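worker-03 picked up job from queue 'complexes'. Input manifest follows; four sequence lines, order preserved.
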Amino acid sequence: MDALTINEAAQTTGWSPRMLRYIERIGLVEAPRSSAGYRMYGPGELQRLRTLRELLAARDLGLGDVAFALRLRRDAALREAVDAWLDAEPRRPESVPAGDWLRWEQDKHARLLRAAAPPPTREMETA
Amino acid sequence: MDALTINEAAQTTGWSPRMLRYIERIGLVEAPRSSAGYRMYGPGELQRLRTLRELLAARDLGLGDVAFALRLRRDAALREAVDAWLDAEPRRPESVPAGDWLRWEQDKHARLLRAAAPPPTREMETA
DNA sequence: TAAACCTTGACACACCTTTGGTAAGGTTCG
DNA sequence: CGAACCTTACCAAAGGTGTGTCAAGGTTTA
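worker-03 finished. Artifact:
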């Protein structure tokens, strides 16, 4: 008995069965299915569901927010498009001397990397 | 006459004045103010507003989505928390041979970098 | 000073998201 | 078999988002 059914999983994770199906539909936690089509929640899914709750509560997020983050993660083109827009800060380009434009573009790249690779501050996930 | 008032900006960007105020409130495009408190839209803001429209339409996003991406960009702790959750894939850790755990953790880091630094495929922003 | 702007704040409405039910029908198991 | 599950597919209510409009009051400008 390594995997729980949806109602049991709901009990131990604090979500309602209804929400577990919803969470699956938006792609956040998908449980494997039994041969008859029943969702089977293993330790991995249960942990994931619990940490999801904590994440939402701790950061005041909605499921939609996390779903969007996931979409960003999976869709490289989308990520590039959004990043490109966000990179164009409100500072007018006039503030960048014409000759420095190329370097500016390159730095933007570097900044992106730095922003995405913060010091390994483990803290979540262990809760 | 380098800066437009809100109604003029609305005309040239396709947004309504109402929406320009809304967009400002959610932190996406904030226009500097005149001494009397009037919003003054310069070329930078106008461009930003136009590309924002294209981004939303092209990618079928909502303003809230972009606002959340901005929040992710600015709040490092939030970004780490969300990334940490997303990194914990549905694959149970059992699938990783015990000894490889350390290497696994390190690779996760590398994967993150790779995901955040896609080949420089410029395309947007010039529209 | 008066017309034509601007500002914030409030009311309002349509639509989408989040959740809960409930119904019709398959599965498991005592 | 029958109780107690599961599944999907709807209807629905509460709350958030996107958007318009109007009011009361300051600013600009002719």
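worker-03 released lock.
Chain B touches chain A through 50 residues (CB under 8 Å).
The radius of gyration of chain B is 21 Å.
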